[in-house]
Design a protein that fits this description.
The structure is a homodimer.
Chain A: H1 22-29, H2 43-47, H3 81-91, E1 95-97, E2 104-106, H4 108-127, E3 131-132, E4 138-140, H5 141-144, H6 148-154, E5 159-164, E6 167-175, H7 180-190, E7 199-208, E8 222-232, H8 235-255, E9 262-265, E10 277-284, E11 290-300, H9 302-307, E12 310-312, E13 318-320, E14 322-329, H10 331-340, E15 357-361, H11 366-385, E16 390-392, H12 400-409, E17 414-418, H13 420-425, E18 427-432, E19 441-446, H14 449-476, E20 479-481, H15 485-493, E21 497-501, H16 506-516, E22 519-524, E23 544-548
Helix pairs in contact in A: 1-3
Chain lengths: ~550, ~550
């Protein structure tokens, strides 16, 4: 059944209303299909019935109507995943397109998710011995040419500054696509002896890659990321560091973003331009396409040889340093949307949510208003004091039903409803975003701060782990073990991931890509115990690989 | 008396050793004078005499000698302020030059100061109702041309991207020098009615201005900053916002950075390109030149008219919004260096210091080592647990005397020394960075955590306010009240700031600049009560202005 939910213009907590037709514009700008016929499942209407009489203000229509309610719709996810994704980004005010093709404006609600990513990782990076610093974004073109495979990988995607201060520059400048070259230029000046190692730094920065096919968050001309860079005295230390950082990313994905990524090693074909080995975390999106959500590279001595980054070891010998680099970007925000969102809109894991609890006060008569608002305010204050991220939506320009729909669409994990009867009984009603309808709604939770705080924190923890469990089930039911190319092709054609033993050539890998659209996402760290024969060649295979279509 | 202190290469907490001759290179790169003959006052040697026998390891030489001790010196501040500044930046490992002329690498110790600025301001911005977001850095060239005075102000300084993905672009792109134009392009799409106002956002970003004369932190081709942008329904609201934000900056400067800035309004000549009014905080550096340390602009309707940013007011009328923008940049780090530093090196206000307390354990005999290190570690843990930023320098590759000098040069506010006798007596020795020699040194402070913690916090508070008081005295003794142009010229020629009544023309203002090198820094908010006659024309003057040479 397909009906349509319309979300009117409003001033949200974070930012002004999204321009009308902006969804359409987003699609156009990012070269995607035009919007489909307006459609939206009835789930949202079903999931937010106000429980008592004084909660429902638009019972007859069955859905919220309001001024500005014109052409805003969310395409059902099952109908068109891409259109759904763009609708979420527009309606939840996560991002907008920039004036230059393929660029993106990250709006406050989307940026707050990126800030949650930063806050967590920044602490972890420091705990693991890294310091933040900042390198210039302009890199002499000659630097990019110094490492052979690096220039091959990046030169088609470069943005070049050729004019500065009104004059043609003698040497054109690259706007950094990544910073290995300039980092090595500086490391060469800073590193002299083994005492200067390990050198472990990170920077939060913008980078530019001239992509032809773009998609908000997932692939944009300019994006935000962190890039770690380290130099070590031995290959073992560099390998340990590369593994340590992919592990930091894996823990972050599971524990914070509730995304059950599969961590593993990239194939030779898919390895970063300039690295010996690339480790990756691969996430399964709601359409079962893979998203490379973070990478960690063992660079070996490739850049240190190209840039002459040497140190004097304990025996007085000159050696090239061993290096790593690793990165997570704003792409991860796209991963969160596409992992947890549903037809109602965004669904945020509590640990990533800019707002964890929204409080909706409900009153009908004027003489009820003060009591309800006072109670709502004191509940808000108590929860804020407990360290929770709380939004009290006390505007009287919107109906409670409208607010329910709006904050569900914005993915807020918990909603607290407070009406006159609740004030009398000293209790509140609490609804979970991840459990639609009456099932997710509990009445009569005490307003007493310590009881309410404990209840809310328990529910947030439950939602956090429930989202992860749901994503694990979805992932595992969509990975097929295959032992032949035929089985692989069938799995991919069904939209699934195929996992099978692989020891075939790079050429065979490219053939799979051409014939099925799938690539090797990784050789997962977790390997099965059974004996293996390459699915393509029948030769012995030491590892299974995972194949999937990807973003 | 001039002697020389040499600081050898070492592996610091934050980063590897600074390359030899890097100070010289810094000077060369930033087009400054070559280093003067090595010279350094004896103050540092005097200020760090180890108090007891077991603290001095190089008594005979009177200064620390170590491997790598080659050509590292800090020019005395009084001898050559610029050379001193560059020496501090190099020796304290705050920054290095990038490979492209005028660009800068911000090293971990310098970046940590920037992070302290960010941490404080980010909270204040949110408390005052602003949300963070992110705009693309590439701006279509045509945008810059839309606001007449804006294009005039910025076009000579632009970096242009003309090639992307291997192709010549149809429209060249500006690498943002500031974001008013692209912000207004987006605001125009987001703002519809008075309900969408005020719209108050901020972004932390890099910006590029093709400066010809550069200086680390103070003026670089690329720098980091925050830029706030707001839109309001009335001119009064915009004016209040512009004033509110210069007030946030002023409080930050006084309370956190211990810099007694003078807040005021810029003259017409010095107003931001595109603003109606510019408010500024002006700081007096150690050489008595002024540093514009932060600005807040009332943009009026200049950009909203250029970009058609309109809203429907409560009466249904279309109106252009009223706007502000405001910024503080990495230049502020330069301001901290040049306000508080002395011949010994950097001197950091405790609230800005990446390390507030350094602990130096001291032992001579092997059997003393364990006891001393254990005590030092437990003191470090206790202070860290109390929320202090603590570094335990327990390497045995350096002498205590060397460490004293090194951490003084890095500007750490407090040093705790622990030797065998201190372990026996359960006490420590504490030295203040801002009070040289024996005067700043106190013996016998109990190691008992609660006593030590309270003592250390009190001392840090004292240092914080002492640095501010010292800077206020310096500032006030270098501002001269003038009532004629002759007096103004004399004050400026003595290197001072001149404050006097001013109501003369823009042409007169430019004449002062040509003849004296000084500009109007601001019309300070704090105005004297006496009657005024313009120092230049003798006409009535409503305000006094402050004139000074500036960075």
């Amino acid at each position: 059944m397909v009906s349509s939910l319309r979300l009117p213009t409003l001033t949200s907590l974070f930012s002004p209303s999204f321009a009308r037709r902006s969804t359409v514009s987003l699609r156009r700008r990012f070269h995607l299909r035009p919007p489909l016929a307006a459609g939206f499942s009835a789930q949202s209407a079903a999931s937010s019935p106000a429980g008592t009489d004084d909660r429902v203000q638009n019972k007859k229509s069955g859905r919220v109507q309001d001024r500005g309610d014109t052409d805003r719709v969310i395409t059902p996810r099952s109908q068109d995943f891409n259109a759904w994704y763009l609708d979420i980004i527009a309606n939840a005010e996560l991002a907008d397109y920039g004036p230059v093709r393929g660029t993106m404006v990250i709006r406050p609600y989307g940026y707050a998710i990126w800030e949650a990513i930063q806050d967590y990782l920044n602490v972890k990076f420091k705990e693991t011995g890294h310091s933040n610093m900042y390198f210039p974004q302009f890199i002499p073109y000659s630097f990019i040419e110094k490492e052979a495979s690096h220039v091959e990988g990046f030169s088609p995607e470069l943005a070049l500054v050729t004019v500065g201060g009104g004059k043609e520059l003698e040497e054109k400048l690259v706007v950094r696509p990544t910073s290995e070259t300039i980092v090595n230029h500086m490391f060469t000046q800073w590193i002299h002896s083994y005492r200067d190692l390990p050198l472990m730094i990170n920077q939060w920065a913008n980078v530019t890659r001239w992509e032809m096919r773009t998609k908000p968050f997932v692939r944009t001309l300019e994006f935000l990321w962190q890039e770690g860079h380290t130099a070590h005295a031995t290959p073992e230390e560099a390998e340990n560091e590369a593994l340590q950082m992919i592990d930091v990313y894996t823990k972050f994905a599971y524990e914070q973003a509730a995304i059950p990524v599969i961590a593993g090693r990239k194939s030779k074909v898919e390895t970063f331009a300039g690295a010996d080995k690339t480790y990756t975390i691969e996430a399964m999106m709601g359409d079962r396409k893979a998203l490379q959500a973070g990478t960690s590279h063992n660079l070996g001595q490739n850049f240190s040889r190209a840039f002459g980054t040497q140190f004097t070891d304990e025996n007085g010998q000159r050696q090239h340093v061993w290096q790593t680099s690793w990165a997570i970007s704003t792409r991860f925000v796209g991963g969160i949307i596409m992992t947890h969102g549903d037809d109602t809109g965004l669904m945020l894991p509590p640990r990533m949510a800019p707002i964890q609890v929204v409080i909706v006060p409900i009153w009908k008569k004027v003489d009820e208003k003060t009591g309800v608002l006072d109670a709502a305010k004191s509940v808000a204050e108590a929860l804020k004091a407990a360290g929770l991220k709380v939004k009290l939506d006390d505007t009287d320009q919107r109906t409670p039903g409208w607010k329910f729909n709006f904050w569900e669409m914005k993915g807020v994990p918990l909603r607290i409803e407070i009406g006159p009867r609740d004030v009398s009984s000293g209790s509140v009603v609490i609804s979970r975003r991840d459990v639609p309808g009456k099932q997710g709604k509990v009445f009569g939770i005490s307003m007493e701060p310590s009881i309410l705080e404990a209840y809310v924190k328990d529910r947030l923890d439950e939602i956090q782990s429930s989202l992860l469990q749901k994503a694990i089930s979805f992932r595992d039911s969509n990975i097929v073990d295959v032992s032949s190319y035929e089985e692989l092709k069938e799995a991919i054609s069904l939209g699934k991931w195929a996992r099978g033993p692989w020891s075939a050539s790079d050429a065979d890998e490219l053939r799979v890509k051409e014939e099925t659209g799938a690539t090797i996402r990784c050789f997962p760290f977790e390997q099965p115990q059974w004996t293996r024969t390459c699915l393509m060649t029948g030769n012995p295979a030491e590892e299974v690989a995972i194949f999937a279509k990807s973003y």
